[in-house]
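ARCHIVE ENTRY
Sequence with per-residue tokens
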Amino acid sequence: MFYDDIRLNKEISFVSKTGRLTEHETHLHYALEISVLLENDAKYHLIDRDYHGKPGDVFIFRPFEPHWNLALDPAKPIQWTMILFSPSIVRSIPEGHKLLTPFYAADQFSPLIPAQSPYAQAIHKAAGQAVFEEQQQLPGWRAKQFQSFIDILVQIYRCYTEVQQDHEAQHEPTPHMLQVIEYMLSHFSEPMEMEPLIERSHVRKTMFYKRFKDITSLTPNEFINRLRLQSAMHLLDNSEKSITEIAFECGFHSLSYFNKQFKEFRGLSPREHRSRA
């Protein structure tokens, strides 16, 4: 497994990709990723499971989730649209933090949205329109592409909420835990105490920590820290703000603590990370 040091020149990137590899080491990166499979069958390899992708399928990946998509037949190269974006982009979308929930609900939502789903079909249409807009670059194309991107996020979120409704009809309900995650996504840069979050979850403390990790694969503190560090990486790459300003804006109240956490997370200091951009 290797860290793919993908740099986003803008907050959203639509990239048309072709590949014929049948074996490859998994990779990870800090951007959120949506893969829209266009042609031929693919194997989507994650760290703990594989999926057989068919044309029309849509896959979503969380930041730092090891994965790779491979051609099942080298004679039939796969084609897909790869959408990469920074989590911070949702700040400009009304209630945008909710649209990130599917990307962080690890055990509550499959990364695969199958081709026969109306959500996958709508995502394909929107992704195709976004790629077309960038190719033509007519006046206002960036705004049109952003509209397509919002539509894609909304379709993923609607699919997610439908899955949650089915899940709750068959299992013990978890809506309060998901509301906790939504709250953390929208307030991660603020001071975050655990007791109020536990109260929001409507479960006891031990069960709160268990369920939170079941859903996100992280502890609450790891989750908050991950969101803060991802936001910091984006600002380091895409702003002229000082490292001190970024640290405090992202919720770190000590520059030395931010530097320590960032280096443990990225393997580089914030200054080294920025110098490579």
